[in-house]
Amino acid sequence: xASEKKPGExxxxxxxxxxxxxxxxxxxxxxxxxxxxxxxxxKVKKHHASRNPVLARGIGRYSRSAMYARKALYKRKYTxxxxxxxxxxxxxxxxxxxxxxxxxxxxxxxxxxxRKMPRYYPTEDVPRKLLSHGKKPxxxxxxxxxxxxxxxxxxxxxxxxxxxxxxxxLKQLATGLLxxxxxxxxxxxxxxxxxxxxxxxxxxxxxxxxVKIPKHLTDAYFKKKRLRKPKHQEGEIFDTEKExxxxxxQRKADQKAVDSQILAQIKKVxxxxxxxxxxxCLSNGVYPxxxxx
Amino acid sequence: VFKRFVEIGRVAFISFGPHAGKLVAxxxxxxxxxxxxxxxxxxxxxxxMPFKCMQLTDFVLKFPHSARxxxxxxxxxxxxxxEKWAATRWAKKIEARxxxxxxxxFDRYKVMKAKKMRNRIIKxxxxxxxxxxxxxxxxxxxxxxxxxxxxxxxxQKSAKVQKAQKAQK
Lengths: 293, 169
Fold this sequence. Notes:
The complex is a heterodimer of chains A (293) and B (169). The longest helix of chain A has 20 residues. Chain A has nine helices and nine strands. In chain A, 28% of the residues lie in helices and 14% in strands. Chain A has a domain of 97 residues: SH3 type barrels. Chain A is extended and about 95 Å long. Chain B folds into two domains: 92 residues, SH3 type barrels (Roll), CATH 2.30.30.30; 32 residues. In chain B, helix 4 packs antiparallel against helix 5. By secondary structure, chain B is α+β, with helices and mostly antiparallel strands. Chain B: InterPro entries: Rib_uL2_dom2 (IPR014722), Ribosomal_eL14 (IPR039660), Ribosomal_eL14_dom (IPR002784), Translation_prot_SH3-like_sf (IPR008991).
């Protein structure tokens, strides 16, 4: 058997006679086994030369199917080891769910499909959309902040009900809007969001490095809430649920927490309190492009 | 009618051009429109400059025509032109104008408050004087009026100084 293999395949043969030698020679066993282990670690297999002789460049002697047979690929079918993900995936998702149903004599529940068949197939197929790149959704946009706006800067609001008021900048929120506060006792501007574009940044800064802004002040906290649950009563449809905005206790508490820290810093700068109380306005001979803010 | 003449040694203020705002001494006249000009202590190289961009000042230096830069510098430093210039009203007005342009929003607010306070004080004194003059007769008042006017002036000046300081801040 050893002699048969030798002329045919020398490379794997190197390994095998080595094996057989260790089997035959007992005193040589420890050495051989060491060598065998070393060989196993270094080489997995030595590859055979191409079994498809070249007739001309790009043209082999044998066809695909002949090569399949020659390479004995029918014996060499491998599958990748099953990963943990695949093991997990084997858990099939639920197809149906039983839901309780009200009413008398209805039998308590129904078995409902979770994923239902489509109720409409269009007559024409939707054409394939062309590839586009760089079109990100809003949540992935890059947010920029002007270099002149740093935490503690006094900003002048230009739009909204608080236009003209001077206000202290706290931080930029995740959507890019600026979190800003009056403080409330100074100019009746609460913790509020302002848009960077509709704001003038002055060069006056309040030292806010020691002020801790609570982490729950995010865009979701400030988002406008709208309740719409019309019960189809024709007479009272115009009376929506949230006509009047009511200040929640949490807002008051947050306002106090932030403002108390900021007011301490404002008191240190002379005349800053009065400055924040005043509003910005233009008059004759005052040109914004010539003003230094 | 004319008090300041173009002469050798006249110190001129450059009003526009690349060297706007600097002082130079006229070293020589080239022709009807140009002068050879040098400003060793104000960073202006010796060069020809049209008269149009020069505005004559009150200072004249003593050096011969076409004197070299070293002489001009010596004369300039001897007369201490830089300090004299800074003490003139002209220079002070320029400085005040620059400061006003650099005022930030907060500074403008402070100035507004200072002005308001000053005007209030002045008005107060004026009203006092008016009341006095309307209550009593005019004759016994004449001796008191100049005193009160001085008081009002002093108050004015102190307020002005405050305002200037605040504007500087």
